[in-house]
Amino acid sequence: MTSSCPVPHPETERVLLGHGSGGQLMAELLTDVITPELGLTAPLEDAALIGLNQVFSTDSYVVTPRFFPGGDIGSLAVHGTVNDLAMRGARPLALSLAYIVEEGLPLSELRDITRSAAAAARAAGVPIVTGDTKVVGRGAADGLYVTTTGVGMRLRDARPSAAGAEPGDVVLVSGPVGLHGIAILSAREGLGFDADVSSDSRPLNDLVAAMIAAGGADVHALRDPTRGGLAGSLNEIAAASGVCVEVVESAVPVPVPVAAACDLLGLDPWHVANEGCLVAFVAPGSADAVVAAMRALPEGAGTAVVGEVVEGVAGRVLARTLVGSSRVVDVLVGEQLPRIC
């Protein structure tokens, strides 16, 4: 009789934590379970275009800890929805704010989070006009969950879409990557990176408005690389647009503390979440003007040209390494850092 190792059976009928990663498992959850039931067939965007110019977006936030270097769940929820509207070239007009509160949450904490959300909305120039509050029993909500919904109006000449990238486009990143995910992980696990790394959470609507003013319809695609990080956003745009993207590895701005933390923890900074930078695909004729407009604002001061759309396999993202070779940039399969937003 011979023995053999049992073949593991992957879980296929229950939701896993990795289904919220922004990577391959989340894509499968959307395409296999959710979008067919809703009758959705078009590539999914950060926000939906309704009619000619109205844009609509909603998102939920379950980040832990609720307070972290550079922000909290209240400001994060506002920034996240404002930025999702901006990624479709929209000026945000109004937000809703809804809470699911666990019994026992200190009222002082709820007050601080609400005050932070209000301040973030004022800074972004968008009012919070409605909302909802539900209270659930102890142990049912891990303190507080937040949902924000936003409506906006697309800026004149704005046409960005995940499916809009074209051959020859220049790929831009508006700032350093990996800050948010490492800040959350350090605060959650007490890793000691807090002094060097803060979340980059901030609104990007003014930055996008400046980009559209400089480049108009030549700004083909925008994405804020949250869950799944830079690698996830590049792959989403490449797949939706049917193009091949090549990124110069050394051109991607990764802060030294983020790189050190990722080396220590075995993480890829391109997979780590961000909340205050964007990826843009811009026609080459307008790239210089768009870069100059971005660098003129604080939130775009670190803008870097990191790659271009090249001939190659549609839907593939390549990284040109320091030694001149190329590697395929994959999306996350499972969950790297849960509860980061």
From TrEMBL:
<dbReference type="InterPro" id="IPR016188">
    <property type="entry name" value="PurM-like_N"/>
</dbReference>
<dbReference type="GO" id="GO:0051604">
    <property type="term" value="P:protein maturation"/>
</dbReference>
<dbReference type="InterPro" id="IPR011854">
    <property type="entry name" value="HypE"/>
</dbReference>
<feature type="domain" description="PurM-like C-terminal">
    <location>
        <begin position="166"/>
        <end position="315"/>
    </location>
</feature>
<dbReference type="Pfam" id="PF02769">
    <property type="entry name" value="AIRS_C"/>
</dbReference>
<protein>
    <submittedName>
        <fullName>Hydrogenase expression/formation protein HypE</fullName>
    </submittedName>
</protein>
<comment type="similarity">
    <text>Belongs to the HypE family.</text>
</comment>
<dbReference type="Pfam" id="PF00586">
    <property type="entry name" value="AIRS"/>
</dbReference>
<feature type="domain" description="PurM-like N-terminal">
    <location>
        <begin position="45"/>
        <end position="153"/>
    </location>
</feature>
<dbReference type="InterPro" id="IPR036676">
    <property type="entry name" value="PurM-like_C_sf"/>
</dbReference>
<dbReference type="InterPro" id="IPR010918">
    <property type="entry name" value="PurM-like_C_dom"/>
</dbReference>
<dbReference type="InterPro" id="IPR036921">
    <property type="entry name" value="PurM-like_N_sf"/>
</dbReference>
